[in-house]
Amino acid sequence: MARSRAPSSCFGAKKQRLDEETTSRSCVPRNGLSAPGVVRREMCYFCFDVLHSHLHNTEPPSAPKTFPNSSYPLFVTWTYGKDEKLRGCIGTFTAMNIHSGLREYAINSAMKDSRFSPITEEEFPHLTCSVSLLLHFEEGKNYQDWQLFFNAVDRT
Q1: DSSP secondary structure string for all residues of the chain
Q2: Which range (4-8, 32-36, 48-52, 57-61) has the least confidence?
Q3: pLDDT per residue over 56-115, tens digit each?
Q4: How many domains does the chain contain in total?
Q5: CATH of the domain at 78
Q6: Which of 16, 26, 47, 133 could form a disulfide with 106 if both were Cys (CB 3.0 to 4.6 A apart)?
Q7: What is the structure's pLDDT at 7?
Q8: pLDDT band at 53 (very low <50, low <70, confident <90, very high)
């Protein structure tokens, strides 16, 4: 059983409500930790753009130049409404390039999470997106060697 020793680097954003003057350098991950050079609000923007193009059958956005294309295990989470109710969350424990990973999992988490029906155009304006990059994996001592809301767990 592998687990992430530290919380994932995660940034959540509601694209249409972000202050355009705030720079990506000043973003704070949801877990309160900073991951300089890794987490960028533009990752959430990119997921919104990917989902928008999918919903409207238009060309997908090109690879962004606003954040690096490093490899990390990652998850994309969609929540809905003011209560931010979970609407989809899918990712991978296998490290992959951020650009292609976000492109793939923005769609998969929105359309293929078996717990939910696919996200619709009508829901799009009410969505919030979170991107989680998983860091610092280590072997767990046993099945109880993890903390709720702190570790990501791979049960393999």
Answers
A1: -EEESSPPEEEEE-GGGS-TTS-GGG---TTS---TTT--HHHHHHHHHHHHHHHTT-PPPPPPSSS---EEEEEEEEEETTTTEEEEEEEEEEEEEHHHHHHHHHHHHHH--TTSPPP-TTTGGGEEEEEEE---EEE-SSTT---TTT--EE--
A2: 4-8
A3: 999 999 988 988 899 999 999 999 999 999 999 999 999 999 999 999 999 999 999 999
A4: 1
A5: 3.30.700.20
A6: 47
A7: 36
A8: very high
Cα separation of 118 and 74, whole Å?
20
70 token code pair: 């490093």
pTM for the model stands at 0.73
Whose CA is closest to 124, among 141, 139, 137, 111?
A: 111
Q: Is residue 19 part of a domain?
A: no
